[in-house]
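We store sequence with structure; for instance:
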Amino acid sequence: MSRSVLVTGGNRGIGRAIVERFLAEGHKVCSADFGGEAPAGALGVNCNVTDAAQVDAAFAAAEAAHGPVEIVIANAGITKDGLIMRMTDEQWDAVIDVNLKGCFYTARRAVKSMMRNKYGRVVFMGSVVGLYGNAGQVNYSSTKAALIGMARSLTREVGKRGITFNVVAPGFIETEMTAVLPAEVTDGFKAQTPAGRMGSVDDIANAVAFLTSDGAGYISGAVIPVDGGLGMGH
C-alpha cells in the first residue's frame, strides 16, 4: 500500500537514503528541509523544524499533495560539539532547538492527523551516544537520550489509536559529514565497533523501513540500535 510519508532533513545523508527508500517502495514522500534540494521524485518543502509554523506548513503541503501524513521520520538534527567547560549557551540552545524541540513540533503535528485516522508510524532518529555517551557531545547526547522518553511517553499517550513511536539509534555511519574526517579518526570508529566497519545509510533506511511497515504494528516505544554492536542496547 502506498503511504503518505514526511521526512525532516531528507536532502542528504541518512535522511536522503530514507526518502529514496520510501520512493523506491512506491510511497508518496515529502522531504522537509532547511535548504538543499530534495531527492528526485519527492515533494521538497523548505522547513526550519525549530519554527512550529513552518512545521505546520510542511505538513499542510504534504497533505495537499499526498493526503493525510501516515508515516513521519523526524530525522533533522545538528551537532555543535565542545567540552562542557567550553560549550557556549548558543551551542547548547541550537542543538536542543533542532534535535529536541524540532522533534516535538514534528510529532505534535503528526499526531493531529494520525489520531483522526487511527493509524500512524513515527520514527525519531536517535544515536548510539544517546545511550552510550560521548565526551564533547553533552548537548547532542542529551537530545538523543530525550527522544527515547518522548517516544515512550507518546506510546502511552496515544498508542491505542494505532500509532507507534520508535527510535532508531545509529552508530558510526558513512555520510558526507564523516567522509571529510581524517583516516585516523574513522579508523578509530571502526576499532571501537565490534563489526569492524562503519555502517551505511542503507543500514539505517532498512531499519526505518521495517519499523514503519504494517509488520511492525506491535512495536512501539522501542530503541533499535543500528551500530554494529558498538552500544549493544545499553
Observations:
- Helices lie at 13-24, 52-66, 89-117, 129-132, 138-158, 176-179, 183-192, 201-211.
